[in-house]
Amino acid sequence: TRGDSVYSLLPCHVVDGISISLTNRQYYLQYSYGLPLSLLHVSYFVGPVTANHFTMSSTNPPKVDVPVLKDLNIDNITDNVKLINGQCPDPRLKYVLERLTQHLHDFARETRLSHEEWMTGLQFLTKVGQTCTDVRQEFILLSDIFGLSLLVDSIDHPKPPPSTEGTVLGPFHSHEAEPQTNGSTISHDPDGEPCLVLCTLKNTAGEPVEGVKIDIWETDSHGFYDVQYPGREGPDQRAVMTSDAQGVFWFKAIVPVPYPIPHDGPVGQLLKKLKRHWYRPAHVHFMFEKEGYDHLITALYLRGDPYETSDAVFGVKDSLLIDLGTVTPEQAKQYGMKEGSRLISYDFVLVSKEESDKLREKNAMEAMQKLGRNMKMYNGLPVPDVD
């Protein structure tokens, strides 16, 4: 029996000192001496139980000193959890978990979260994880639609003027892109409208930056990334390039088009419930890496796109909006393009890592002061100053 309910027990397996009783509704795990370990809903525990499922033997439990937990209730559970987690020796992890616990518990109290809603949330997150594959990151997509991705990038990679602003990575970046040289064609979509892309890279002093690794990716003319095609032969609409001595890189692509983010999974179902669309405005992704410079993930968006002001993942910024140009006769001859073809041109500006780190720390301390918290920096991140 469990509470007022009666469960019919099925054969019990014993693994490494842990007994698993299979009931008609749940797997009830307990130590062989009768202390409850956990309850796992049957739909989440699939396959035969072996010793590999467990990393701790009940016959040799770890010896740790823990604070005495008081009679737990709505009013003191938060302080008790923070107390026991407060033994963490890493000050940053300790601080992050302390704030996470506080906000999670406050959320439950403020919304009067029901058990059914709590379980629905857990099932949703489980489905998000199950949807992830080597080429699809549903958790990044979930972070994107809540605006968390853009928020974290803005906090962790502040870009002072006149440096180029960052934006979201998105769920379809891959490491399959092949190295290309200036002038390469990165898209082989016969239905796409040809587009010449001319770019420069400079630092905040206006000097060209040579040797920057540039990761580029976009969809095809139908709004799909290469990794979304099961039978693809290799990477397309993506490349890795390097800026030359003048900080220049250029390539031939296709005009980007608006497209839907994946909406056949749990994130798409959530957007549907929220009465939100799942479209992104037309854009091309760029990622820049060079030692001594702050990592930059950004994109260029076409001005006037129907989804410019309602991007499903909140990625558009005014400074990243561009107008499509037209290839001139001189450019057509110089770059081997047809006159009148579409043109994207942009001057990217990278900020040094030192500049970005100083700005991040300055912003962090100012934010903490506004919250009335006495903080110090630890590995570039704020932690409580208890010295």
TrEMBL record:
One of its GO terms (molecular function) is ferric iron binding. Its cofactor is Fe(3+). CDD domains: 1_2-HQD. Gene3D superfamilies: Aromatic compound dioxygenase. Residues 90-160 form the Catechol dioxygenase N-terminal domain. Keywords: Dioxygenase, Iron, Metal-binding, Oxidoreductase. Residues 170-350 form the Intradiol ring-cleavage dioxygenases domain. The keyword Protein biosynthesis does not apply. It holds the Pfam family Dioxygenase_N. GO terms for biological process: catechol-containing compound metabolic process. Residues 157-189 are annotated as: Disordered. Belongs to the intradiol ring-cleavage dioxygenase family. This is Intradiol ring-cleavage dioxygenases domain-containing protein.
